[in-house]
DNA sequence: ATACGACGGTTTTTT
DNA sequence: ACCGTCGTAT
């Protein structure tokens, strides 16, 4: 053994409990760490990385795969804190590692060297283009929209299941269009090839192709001695294939996860994969972590009861390490307005009792569940940051900016052209198409073929596209020409600038006035662009900048900015999906009614219902000290709250007697079932629903 | 013919 | 927020 540290240097092993230490120091054969919520999963994984390095495994021969960049950054940082020699551990998300490998083997995969990566929005735009070309946009029968198409496509690819089955099971309402969708997906594959681009799913497909190749596969696997995979309950079939290919060629494999926290079924993940791990990887040692360092026992009692409802699961029962605690609250409220008030009241109360806003969070099933609450927070001047829901990259002005960056890099990107041309006032879809047709008909360089081995030829083709502008401008309305000329001129300058920062800066200048003119809040949006420009300065290569933006999308503009000041105090609002792995002293879960937990469209199969239950479980187990769950009795059908359509709901079916027995149930005095503060009756449960009429 | 504003309707969750 | 439709202005 090259490095034998003495006991004192390995103090961090002594700080682990027996199970954690067993996991961290396991040798020989596959390892499955079943880490319940709050049981020190990250600590254990970091300790294992540190231990491997301390035992002499070269750090660059360890691969750590996570689902988010944040997770990999955090773990690598902590591992380095334990053992500085672990500095060179290769860590990243499945997609970013895939990107690195696909880049290195682009030629073998038939990709141009400078291939672009489509984010979900771009992929949907390509599908939309094909949808339009095939005449589905105009057809009488309602054809699925681009977002749905992408969902169907992605699900099919990631689950590696036949399209017909995916449609039958998850998208039955598009059954009539099955053949057209199938044809469209084939065209999508062809079109991506022609454009020289890959989407996020392709990255995984291509990695798998490399990993399974009899020549390249063993070489990839031989670069690593150990592969560690975080959040294994969230892997899909494609990712299991990757793990198996790596293990098959000799890597030692460690996976960590909690089947109770599998909540990405809609992304083709399946808790089945972690349940099946011991069979798929013979000789697996299973270590279960049940000692919870996060919450107090009353919160865990309720969570354990909820988990006990699951049909198939590894048996686990969380035990609190900390003593004391208060029972979770189940609070009935009149409607979402009353819910907002109740939440705000309790948050302010907690703040007065010494809890900062940053120690509190409000979690919801969907991002718009907190719409009313946001108004209330605004009214009471309670600062908050919202995670999940609309993302930064999806904002129109950011997409515009990225489209400009893409165009400066690849003049053949028709999706980007279509978007950019329409930025100009007076220039709409029809003129954009005409201009694009003229530019596409311009003299071509042979090197423009996207299948060109070197791929470098694509740069040489760009001048042709832009040079054809003098003809293309003739086919657009005369009033729009001057403004369009300015955009093209900026693109010409940007194309000749190879540094990401200055290139982004030039494009910002031409976009800023257009953004200011288009949106009432244009000035704020321009600030977002400034942050992107600042981020571009940090990255040398413009292509790399766009790829990183796609692979690791900033959650909000705050992500790009400098770390927020420590003295700023703000509340966290988040979807439960985005809250995974996080914790707060005080957690509020909104809208725990049947129809939201489970969501009415996810109540079809028992698989789906199980996942909805786990979602509530994840929400509940985020709480360190107090947990409050709100049940609005009357809720709006329309999330926007424009009309007053509403229904009378029941509490979530997951709040069974056994779960409620662990909670304090409260009705507010203005509850419609209990007007004017009459004596509170909790024993009876009345359900009012006209649903039986609607057959 | 084209662009654009107004308006009504909408199967979540995201690497 | 987006999407499709329709009426109006250019």
From TrEMBL:
InterPro entries: DExx_box_DNA_helicase_dom_sf, DNA_helicase_UvrD-like_C, DNA_helicase_UvrD/REP, P-loop_NTPase, UvrD-like_ATP-bd. Keywords: ATP-binding, Helicase, Hydrolase, Isomerase, Nucleotide-binding. It comes from the Bacteria. It catalyses: ATP + H2O = ADP + phosphate + H(+); Couples ATP hydrolysis with the unwinding of duplex DNA by translocating in the 3'-5' direction. GO terms for cellular component: cytosol. This is DNA 3'-5' helicase. Residues 14-296 form the UvrD-like helicase ATP-binding domain. The lineage of its organism: Bacteria, Bacillati, Actinomycetota, Thermoleophilia, Solirubrobacterales. GO terms for biological process: recombinational repair. Gene3D superfamilies: 1.10.10.160, P-loop containing nucleotide triphosphate hydrolases (3.40.50.300), PCRA, domain 4 (1.10.486.10). Its EC number is 5.6.2.4. Residues 297-581 form the UvrD-like helicase C-terminal domain. ATP binds at residues 35-42. One of its GO terms (molecular function) is hydrolase activity. The keyword Nucleotide-binding applies. Belongs to the helicase family. UvrD subfamily. It holds the Pfam family UvrD-helicase.
